[in-house]
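Q&A log
Question type: sequence-to-structure
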Amino acid sequence: MPTENDLKIAVHSSDHFQGMEKASLVLVEYGDYQCGHCGDAYGMIKKIQGELKDQLKFVFRNLPITTVHPDALSAALAAEAAALQGQFWPMHDLLFENQKALCEKDLEKYARQLGLDMALFDAAIKKLELKKQIRSEAEGGIRSGANGTPTFFVNGNRYEGDWSFVPLFNRLENELSAERLRR
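Response status: OK
Response body:
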């Protein structure tokens, strides 16, 4: 039975994900590229991915908090424009690794660094469809109870605990154990 803590938009084929498509664990993050807490979570997620490997499918969805982070929407647009050239995750990583440098000039520098076709990249950033996509992701997060970033969902349920490594990793491990018992 659905609860208010459930992910309102299920993970789907157009989501950006890393890991096995049919993994037992699905971790969804609603994040903001300019959010310091999301920057901290970025490293923690990499560590969790290293530990859980193919057991984890990690999905990133945009929730730019533009009232606090003026470059968050531009960064999300850059990630989505890079995705159109098959470079979402490399751009995602560059954005989090360079959170203090997300102005337009910086975003273009990252696109060049990734070897993107700059004409396509520049045109994509201006596409209304990408802004609509980001807005739709953000609205889905808000409807699911994401009122800040980062907000995590484990197998469709909002994670309410401390999102530092040990508590989140333990929650994921508990979910894996419960999954094994259900089989």
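Response note: The mean pLDDT is 95.
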